[in-house]
Amino acid sequence: MACSFVIRPYGSNSLKYLVCALCLLVSVSAIGAEKKPITVKVFIAGMFEIGANQGDKAGEFQHWYERYFADAQPITIPGALTPVFCNKNGVCGSVLGMGKVASSSSMLAIVLNSQFDLSHSYFMISGVGGIPPSQGTIADVNWGSWLIDYDLGHRWMPEEGEAGAPVFMPRQGYEDIRRYQLNPALVNFAVSLSKNAPLKDSPSAQAYRIRYPEPQARRKPAVTVGTHIAGDTFFHGPGLSAEAQYMSELYGADDYMIAEMEGVAIAQVLARTVGTDRMLSLRGAVNFDQGNPNESTLAHLDPAPGETAGGFAETVENIVIVGGSVVDHIVSHWSDFKDGYTAK
Which residue from 16, 110, 180, 210 has the fewest beta carbons nearer than 10 Å? Predict the structure, then answer.
């Protein structure tokens, strides 16, 4: 609001000062009346929802919504796929969309929107993924220590290269965006706090596990930690799983644990804006990244009726059981987390 007045030749200076003071008071009042941005303590991001946010089959966001946002009003954000919901305790969340482009576009729109103060926020990137049977099992929940882009390189057909050699080579110029290490202190804290969470299981998941000979594939669900690799194309089969592990080793990361589609792209958005030190990536395993020894890769990708992996419903619930304990701890101990987290 601008103040203006006219100084007349024979007017009193006292009147001029009075008008200016009143104008300044109105300006300050108008500024104070502007709606302050929401201070976000934790932002929870799902990638997809199957239907509604409550009352039907749950996807990646429904259990988060029911736990934190059932009474929240939607906040529409230009450029974001779905509205943002915020509760009175400073927890906000939204569905960003599947794939690197959709999810990162939504995340950028939200971070840049003036309705939110995300300068001290923690980001819980939450979803499902695939897991190698040598590393884990259906309904596992895994904290990401590293996020890697499955793309950003060169690939060729195996028969066009050296026999038995890798068919991937990183492309120069992407060194800063092809992999991100998440804050080790924060990741270790999340693992320590949630490692004994009471995870759910199901007879259908148990029956599916025994098709695989690996001990890790046959065990009960657990909370684990490792590298998440994101590609817009679902990669399946023992060959591409081995390639994902090769990439993890090539980039100096931890063992490949989860195949997903979004994490590294969201990390790039946060790195360019508010930073990744407060970012957590949490994924539940809803499938193995390859078939069992009696199943071809194509049969695994397109299973016959009754041959699909069980445990989806339990896994999406497990994600929130594990992640919710961390969200609640951060909010209830906000003074310890507001200025960032380092190992205590």
Answer: 210
* Per-residue pLDDT at 30 exceeds 90: no
List of residues 6+ apart from 20 with CB closer than 8 A? 3, 5
Which domains occur in the chain, in start order?
A: 38-331 (3.40.50.1580)
Query: Which token pair is 222?
Result: 């657990």
Cα gap 290→304, rounded to integer Å = 15
State how far Cα 269 lies from the chain centre: 12
CB atoms within 10 A of CB 215: 10
Q: Specify whether the CB–CB gap between 147 and 261 falls below 8 A.
A: no
For residue 304, pLDDT over 90 is answered with no
pLDDT value of residue 28: 37
Helices and strands counted in the chain (H then E): 11, 13
Cα-Cα-Cα-Cα dihedral sign, residues 96, 100, 105, 111: positive
Q: At residue 228, what are phi and psi to the nearest 5 degrees? A: -105, 130
Helix (H) / strand (E) element for 288: namely: strand 279-288
CA-CA distance, 171 to 156, in Å (whole number)? 13
Tell me the C-alpha to C-alpha distance, in Å, between residue 288 and each of 172, 219, 223, 263: 31, 13, 16, 19
> Taking the model in full, what pTM does it have?
0.88
Paired tokens of 122: 């923690």
